[in-house]
């Protein structure tokens, strides 16, 4: 064998040239140790597709197919504190968020988020750090293909945004990927309303049917279904001729709605029959909003021939009817917004509540 440096003949098994001292052959060189606190890269055992693992502060951060990818990832994490949360799955991040937020949410709010979360089933076991916009976009696209509205898709985005914010706080992510989701364009729905003929049919039926009386009270108050079903007796003042109730928004809570003459007799009757705290506690039918809708409201409308496949007439139709009839009857925009609970009024207006009630009563008389 010939030395590569001095070109003199040397033994075949020589490690060092005996003439010039040149080291011969390859030697395993130990990798340079990384500085303390910057993490480590090591070879995982077994025959793996991703044999290179990385750790930082004792936390395993993942496996990679090449050492170069492992080094690149570790370099990106140098300025970020790393904790066990870095390995959280989407479901674990959701549990952390849920523990913090559910205690202050209403029952309706929790139900809404639970429904949205059920749509994340395909990716809930994925590492939060690995989920990107396109992963959630696929979930949105599935809902769009099923004909879901923009508002329903916004529930997915809203929940994912909340989870991204938690992940950012825990240094799992560095941005809110929910901001880049593409939602379908809003379509202005065709709002169904009860016709005057249908309202007359309900009035005739109300002579012998309590459910029709409740439907008419919804039409003449603009209350949401649960607002009326959960209205306390204390929220009905027959002497002043007003309801005080509402929920959901700041503008809608404890709003004043005059009792229209067309439903006054029904209100008086239900007040006489109320044996408990709720205004409708004497009603013999279902008082849970879901059960009332399916077992009382829909069957009554179907029996009268008002509800059909083309006209589903959901409970919120009563609210649309109230707003539409009010606008057509000349009720002022200010009064209508106040009655619907859609507007905020300043402190001065709130202080002069009696003047406000008188104005609302005057406007309500415009409804026939």
UniProtKB/TrEMBL annotation:
<dbReference type="InterPro" id="IPR011010">
    <property type="entry name" value="DNA_brk_join_enz"/>
</dbReference>
<keyword id="KW-1160">Virus entry into host cell</keyword>
<keyword id="KW-0229">DNA integration</keyword>
<keyword id="KW-0238">DNA-binding</keyword>
<dbReference type="GO" id="GO:0015074">
    <property type="term" value="P:DNA integration"/>
</dbReference>
<dbReference type="InterPro" id="IPR010998">
    <property type="entry name" value="Integrase_recombinase_N"/>
</dbReference>
<dbReference type="GO" id="GO:0006310">
    <property type="term" value="P:DNA recombination"/>
</dbReference>
<dbReference type="GO" id="GO:0044826">
    <property type="term" value="P:viral genome integration into host DNA"/>
</dbReference>
<keyword id="KW-0233">DNA recombination</keyword>
<dbReference type="InterPro" id="IPR013762">
    <property type="entry name" value="Integrase-like_cat_sf"/>
</dbReference>
<comment type="similarity">
    <text>Belongs to the 'phage' integrase family.</text>
</comment>
<dbReference type="InterPro" id="IPR002104">
    <property type="entry name" value="Integrase_catalytic"/>
</dbReference>
<dbReference type="GO" id="GO:0075713">
    <property type="term" value="P:establishment of integrated proviral latency"/>
</dbReference>
<dbReference type="InterPro" id="IPR050808">
    <property type="entry name" value="Phage_Integrase"/>
</dbReference>
<protein>
    <submittedName>
        <fullName>Tyrosine recombinase XerC</fullName>
    </submittedName>
</protein>
<keyword id="KW-1179">Viral genome integration</keyword>
<dbReference type="Pfam" id="PF00589">
    <property type="entry name" value="Phage_integrase"/>
</dbReference>
<feature type="domain" description="Tyr recombinase">
    <location>
        <begin position="187"/>
        <end position="365"/>
    </location>
</feature>
<dbReference type="GO" id="GO:0046718">
    <property type="term" value="P:symbiont entry into host cell"/>
</dbReference>
<dbReference type="GO" id="GO:0003677">
    <property type="term" value="F:DNA binding"/>
</dbReference>
């Amino acid at each position: 064998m010939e030395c590569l440096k001095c070109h003199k003949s040397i033994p075949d098994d020589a490690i060092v040239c005996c003439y010039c001292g040149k080291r011969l052959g390859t030697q395993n060189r130990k990798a340079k140790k990384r500085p303390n606190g910057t993490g480590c890269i090591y070879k995982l055992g077994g025959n793996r597709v991703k044999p290179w693992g990385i750790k930082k502060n004792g936390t395993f951060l993942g496996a990679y197919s090449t050492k170069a990818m492992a080094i690149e990832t570790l370099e990106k994490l140098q300025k970020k504190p790393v904790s066990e949360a870095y390995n959280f799955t989407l479901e674990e991040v959701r549990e952390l968020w849920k523990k913090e937020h559910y205690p202050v949410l209403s029952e309706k709010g929790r139900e809404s988020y639970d429904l949205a979360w059920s749509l994340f089933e395909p990716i809930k076991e994925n590492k939060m750090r690995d989920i990107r916009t396109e992963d959630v976009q696929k979930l949105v696209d599935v809902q769009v293909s099923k004909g879901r509205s923009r508002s329903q898709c916004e529930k997915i985005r809203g929940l994912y945004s909340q989870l991204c914010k938690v992940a950012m706080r825990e240094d799992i992510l560095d941005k809110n990927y929910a901001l880049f989701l593409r939602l379908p364009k809003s379509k202005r729905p065709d709002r169904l309303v009860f016709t005057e003929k249908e309202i007359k049919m309900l009035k005739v039926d109300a002579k012998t049917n309590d459910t029709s009386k409740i439907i008419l009270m919804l039409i003449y108050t603009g209350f949401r279904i649960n607002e009326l079903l959960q209205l306390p007796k204390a929220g009905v003042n027959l002497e002043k001729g007003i309801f005080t109730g509402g929920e959901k928004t700041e503008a809608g809570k404890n709003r004043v709605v005059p009792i229209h003459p067309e439903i006054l007799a029904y209100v008086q009757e239900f007040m006489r029959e109320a044996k408990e705290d709720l205004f409708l506690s004497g009603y013999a039918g279902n008082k849970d909003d879901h059960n009332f809708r399916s077992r009382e409201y829909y069957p009554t409308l179907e029996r009268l021939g008002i509800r059909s496949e083309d006209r589903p007439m959901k409970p919120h139709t009563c609210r649309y009817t109230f707003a539409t009839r009010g606008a057509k009857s000349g009720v002022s925009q200010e009064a209508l917004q106040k009655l619907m609970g859609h507007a905020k009024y300043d402190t001065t207006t709130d202080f002069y509540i009696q003047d406000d009630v008188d104005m609302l009563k005057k406007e309500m008389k415009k409804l026939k």
